[in-house]
Amino acid sequence: MTAGELCNRTVYIIRPDETVLEAARLMKKHHVGCLVVVEERGTDRVPIALVTDRDLVVKGMAEAPSDLETMQVSQVMSEGLVTARDTEWMYDVRKKMRARGVRRIPVVDAEGRLQGIIAFDDMVEWMAQELTDLAQLVSREQKRESETS
């Protein structure tokens, strides 16, 4: 399975010049803990960073609680964005997430345009299904062997 096949296509975005308060409102409204920070290039949305609820608390509220209405997302967003190509195999995406210590990874196409996002929970669900499929294979093989004996 590829990242493009597994990713969630519903992605909530924000621009780097929007406020931390607006980011918090979007997260609350959509019940998410992360927004993809994008640059808009014409009609294309290109991810440049992530901003998480933890970023808002640790870098926003804890450092400058009175500035939340004016503080920009660019001041608190996570640096060093890691992305996955939509054609990348999930096993490679898993390795990349583990190596970089990230719980969420935006999925992009060949031109770098945002296609979706994969969260740690999506990865766990996919891996659980893979293990279930393997267990069923073993079970079927054992059943077939017992029927032919």
Structural overview:
The chain is α/β, with parallel strands linked by helices and 149 residues long. The protein has one domain: CBS-domain, CATH 3.10.580.10. 43% of the residues lie in helices and 21% in strands. It is built from five helices and six strands. The strands form two sheets. A three-stranded mixed β-sheet has the order 1-2-3. A three-stranded mixed β-sheet has the order 4-5-6.
Poorly predicted regions are none
CATH class: Alpha Beta
Total number of domains: 1
C-alpha end-to-end distance? 36 Å
The total count of strands amounts to 6
The succession of helices and strands, N to C, reads HEHEEHEHEEH
CATH superfamily: CBS-domain
Class by alpha and beta content = alpha/beta
Strand content: 15-25%
Topology:
Blueprint: H1 3-6, E1 13-14, H2 20-30, E2 34-41, E3 44-52, H3 53-61, E4 84-85, H4 90-100, E5 104-108, E6 114-119, H5 120-148
Parallel strand pairs: 1-2, 4-5
Antiparallel strand pairs: 2-3, 5-6
Short description:
The chain is α/β, with parallel strands linked by helices and 149 residues long. The chain has helices spanning 3-6, 20-30, 53-61, 90-100, 120-148, and strands at residues 13-14, 34-41, 44-52, 84-85, 104-108, 114-119. The strands form 2 sheets. A 3-stranded mixed sheet has the order 1-2-3. The protein has a 3-stranded mixed sheet with strand order 4-5-6.
